[in-house]
Amino acid sequence: MGSNNRSSNNFKDATAVLLVNLGTPQDPTFFAVRKFLRQFLWDPRVVEIPRLLWWLILQGIVLPFRTPRLVKLYRQIWTRDGSPLQVFTERLANKVAEHFSKRVTSEISVFYAMTYGTPTVKHALKQIEGLRVARLIVVPLFPQYSATTTGAVFDKLVDQLKSQRYIPSIHFVNDYAGEENYLQALAQSITQTWRAHGRSERLLFSFHGIPLRNEQLGDPYPERCKHVASRVAEILNIPENFWDFSFQSRFGFSPWRGPNTEERLLKWAGEGVKSVSVISPSFAVDCLETLEELDIKNRKCFLNAGGECYHYIPALNDTSNHTQVLTSLIENFFKKNIE
After folding, report:
1. Is the C or the N end of the chain the one with fewer CB within 10 Å?
2. What sign has the CA pseudo-torsion 10, 13, 17, 18?
3. How many angstroms separate the Cα of 11 from the Cα of each of 19, 98, 130, 289, 327?
4. Model-level pTM?
């Protein structure tokens, strides 16, 4: 699970980096998907419904009916190496570790974990505890802060640290949506797609959605998404009527933050737009919500409504640009606090 697992007894100089993604089923099978879904949806950070009521809904309705459908969807995007989210997260962690293996001023070990599924945050922290590091840098792989994602990582971190005898100095990166190299990496990814396939008539930034109630209670996520879309459009120097941002992956019956991605694509198709490019900056690596929902389902939606050309722009995944975004976050911490 770890990437650069050098050990040190001198905790004054050693640092551990923990990258945390959301998680994935271990296999595209009924029991594996059900286990993952139950763990994910039972987190009160994800679904804010009174526990007893939600337990009845989850056990009696959601798991029995949603699990078989998700098994089919996961099988569509599963690779020979496993779940794309797992594969890309591990590769990304390895590349970050490789970058720091050449650093001589301070020993840095890199690990990755999942909020749900495996490898767990608990397992990663147990490994890190054995290294007796002086510093722990935690980077949730969610560029835009939300209580439903970044907040859930923090909960897992604190729950485990409660049982540890020794707790290192901790730096928790709660958001990197404003980092210039992250915004530039997104812009370069869009530009590369246009160079390869031609520039589309419209560009859509599609972010994972959250319930409208979450925003009303103070979750800054929608504003952080808007900031990313606006800044990348500014870097690309494209006019306001050329792009828009939306939210995908609605779940349940309560109102969700809009506009909705599928509805935006249908609106554009109805207006005579023939070609679109779609990118989802809220996902650090490709997963079910990008590879199936955006690249398969929403592609069909747009083309069936009269569109002619649909380009899904992949997540940053384990590219050199993404590696540089994460290593810069870590190096900036050292510049401000250590060196």
Report:
1. C
2. positive
3. 20, 21, 10, 40, 21
4. 0.94
